[in-house]
Amino acid sequence: MAILPGSWAIIIANVLTPLAVLVFSSGFFPYKPLVSGLARFEDGSNSTTVPKAFDKVIFMVIDALRSDFVYSNDSGFFFTQSLIRSGAALPFTAYAGSPTVTMPRLKAITTGSIPSFLDVILNIAESDTSSTLIYQDTWLAQLKARGEHLVMYGDDTWLKLFPGMFERADGTTSFFVSDFSEVDNNVTRHIPNELLRNDWSAFIMHYLGLDHIGHKTGPHSPYMVTKHYEMDTIVNNIYTSMEQEEHLQSTLFVLCGDHGMNDAGNHGGSSVGETSPALLFISPKFQALKSSRQSPTDSHSDFQYYRTVEQTDITPTLAGLLGFPIPLNSLGVFVPELLGMWKLNDLYPELESALFRFLKLAQRVMSSAASDYNLSNLLLGLFITFLVVLLSFPTTYTLLSNSGHAGTFYALSILCYGAMMFASSYVEEEQQFWNWAFTAWAFYLHVKTYYLDQLIPSIKEYSIGNRTSQLLQTLSRFAGDKEAEIEIICNTNHQEFVTSVNQLLRIREGTVSLTSEILDLNQSIQASTEKLAEQKRALVESRSHRQNIDETFRAIQDCLEVLRLANQVHDLLAKKNHYAALRALEELQNVHLKGVTQYKIADMIQRSVPTSQKAIAEAVMSDLNTWLYRIREMSQYLGEIALYHTDLRKTRQKGRAEKSPYLGQFKLNSAIELVSDESEEYDLLQNEELQVDFTPLFECLHIHRSLGHMDRFRIEYANTRRRQKELLIPTSITLIDEDGASLHNLLEEMAGFAIVERSTMKRVDELWDSMCQMAVILISKALHEVDNAESLLKIKNLIALFMQTMNTWDFHVGVFDDFLLTLFKKYAELLEKRFSDDFQEIVSTDDYMPMPIQTIEEFDKVLNVSWYNPEKPREEQAFPCVLPFSQMYPLCCIDIRNFLNQFYFFANDDFSHSSVIDETLRDALDELLSSKVCDTLVERLSSQYLGQIVQILINLEHFELACRELEQLLAAARSQNVSGDVVTLNATDKFKSNKKAAEKRIFEVVNSKIDDLIETAEYDWMASVPPAEPSNYMQTLTRFLSNIMNSTLLGLPTEIKELIYFDALSHAANMILALPLSAEVKKINPNGVLALAKDVEYLYQFVDSLGVPILRENLDELQQTVQLMQADNTDEFYDISTRNKKYGRVDAIHGPILLEKIIRTVQSPVKTDKFTTLSSRFGKKS
């Protein structure tokens, strides 16, 4: 069959159509080059990296979260808005470029690059795997590369984009748009467990419920705000966990939407609602940036709230905050508001601003390049398409013209579909278009089929083979046959037709006669009607008069009711029934006056209503002032009852703690204490002793609220109570009156006043704080009167009782808590002064003798108060006995214990500054022991009485032991508050160091006595006869040493006694050796040497009798020197080997000197002057 020219045009058009599509697609879907691999920090360039600000990230995506859903006044994100106000959340509007569907937006969020329109198709294909980002550089891939774990719950698009990326995951499909709840519950159910786990670095959630609500019912649906609340609760739970869980302390919380939605709830296009999702960076750390903002804000038609950033900026911002390299394909810019997380002082503000502008400009240029379309291919594709339209237009027009209704429908479909291409959200509009188009076409086919079922087969039969003329002849023959059938039917029924016509004529005649009868009847009725009308007119007139009378009667009744109510208002006001008067006035104004507004009386009464309202308000205020005066008078009694019952609660709590020590750790007003004392609950305001009736106040409140004068009433009431507060606080008080009545009255009146305020107006913080400050100032001014620690302790206990009472009523007592520190300082000063005098008197009046004990009872008393460990057990102790220390030591120990107890009396459970007491007590005790005990004992070391000095040394020894015991005692006392703390007293080292001074003083006294004894030595170095016995001075010296060893030094430790003896003997030996070495001694004969040797031997025997071998070493030099002086062969001394054996301790200088003085002959006795020896002692020459 030959091909017509029109067919050639159709063939060419069909060939060009796919070519046009390919050319246009190559321009519309350009190739986007991507950099492969993962970004890394350059080696050796540590200066370009900064420490990460966060260790973890919680990334919460709420699908279609438009910015106004979070930031506007219509939002249900109340907690999130509170985070914005506190500065813990930094809000932005993130621009999401088209296409605004989930997959391309997730690509932009994770890679920082610009997605393509091809992703719209891939987003719809649920089974698609070609759009994976597993091989691209994303912030998820960076975290994975660091060996960290990621978890994800929500939209399964993440699982298609990042297969195998997540340690744990639970995906939900996004195409069941009728599901508003379960799709989100499947995400929320995982949150509690994940927040408790510490094995992930990124926790991703993607909620779809809000997007589904938008698709089904639009952004203004009643379901939308409920979903806001649900999402805000999840934000609240996550933020609370970030504050409480230790492993979440360094966690960044990102809340964002992948796109927005238009007013129809759809998305995919580029309208302002679709491209404006919310973005928030949340963390408690952001509060340090001090960047709080107002939230919520007024609605914006352009949805641009706060500052607008690019959605691609999320990627570099996460990279900086989490410390990994920015992905290679990212075009985003770090959000500058978060630079405050690091202290960067390198850039000037101008340079930083310029750099930011450059980055944003570069971002725009690179973004446009990333989505650069091939315009030449686009234009060529459009040109080919236009050519296809021209080629196919004639044939298409002919077909449509001949197609009738079907062609018209097809043409309209093409035009509508073409117009729909300009819709903002193409995906939803296209679906809706084809839905309605298909429905309309099906309806058209249904209607058309009923009429053409018989005609179509015939037309089809004759149209084959061009038999149109035969078809027309057949149709004409069909029409003629139908006309013949009609004529036969008419001829068959002719007789019946004639009969029917006759019957109709007879009926017509009867109708005419009936008509004349009806006319007559009508005239009769008209006459009757006229009479009836006249009667009706008269009746109407009579009814009108009666109605006027009735209306007048009702008006009078209404006016009388108005007057009755007006009088009732005044009667009720006179009876002080104010609320009933106000209700009657409201009923009069709102009900009864509206029925008589047309009468003058209504206007008169309406003008009097404000005056009546004012009279009611003034009357109720007058009653209130009277009530306030009575309350003012009973405030002190109310406060007294409150303090009394708080004291009873303390007593009951103490009793419960004694029965069950576990309850002792709970303070007054704690939950456990309140539950334990629940059976003893006492109503302060309604009890047998006192009943406070708040009716006047509540009536006044209700009346002013009804009148709309609530603000004015609050001001007047606050001013009245403020004046009463000023009257309550006196100009001065005294703290030294009997039973502290002045302070009692002040605190009781304050307590009663505040309790009444708390029971009525609830918010009384400002008034209460002012009252507390004034009271503290008054007490502080009177504090100088108190010079007694016991009185000050009573004042403190009263204030503490007052604080606990007010804590019961939820009042802040921080001012009094701070004032207790001032009281404590004063208390410590008074205690220190009193005990300082006591210590001074004890030390100065001591007899410095060992303490005698007569009975075991006395012994036990001393042990109970002193830090002393006796050498013998108590059972083996014999009485009477003597303790090593003097009586000052146990007396000081008693005072020390009393001093500690007095201090800790202040530190009971109602004093919260126990650490201050610990430090002050340590310093005060240190000062007393150092200055009043130790220094006084050291001053008495100047005594020449050896026994007293020895006793001081013994006392110092025991005081050092007591200080060490006190250190442990103080550490144990403070261990409840400061674990592991070590207490050190300076007095410990001071006592220890002054023991050395006492020992040195003993050495000095003993050596001085030895010097005095040796000075009495009278050696006759040229004696003519040998001595018969040791010298007198030597015998006196040994007796002195024996006495101090067995009596004076008896109480000293053995090592100290031996040290004193060692030093004394060494000093004695040196002094004896110095006698023959004296320059006055010129010669020494054998008898003189013998006398010296006898004394040395006597001293040596005395040392042996002591039983301390080490003491003999002190006499070795003296003994060997005497042996040298008695030696027959003195030359041995000059032989070094012999000298080292026999005379090794002899001084190499002293030996020769003495040998030169030795003579071997003895002169005969001659008569000498009896003063010769004496003169020689004093250096006189004969």
UniProtKB/TrEMBL annotation:
Transmembrane segments: 6-31, 378-400, 406-426, 433-452
Entry's localization field: Endoplasmic reticulum membrane
Pfam family, one: PIGO_PIGG
Membrane topology: Multi-pass membrane protein
Pathway annotation: Glycolipid biosynthesis; glycosylphosphatidylinositol-anchor biosynthesis
Annotated GO CC locations: endoplasmic reticulum membrane; exocyst
Single GO BP term: GPI anchor biosynthetic process
Functional summary from the UniProt entry: Ethanolamine phosphate transferase involved in glycosylphosphatidylinositol-anchor biosynthesis. Transfers ethanolamine phosphate to the GPI second mannose.
Family under the similarity heading: Belongs to the SEC15 family. Belongs to the PIGG/PIGN/PIGO family. PIGG subfamily.
Protein name: GPI ethanolamine phosphate transferase 2
Source organism (scientific name): Aspergillus sclerotioniger CBS 115572
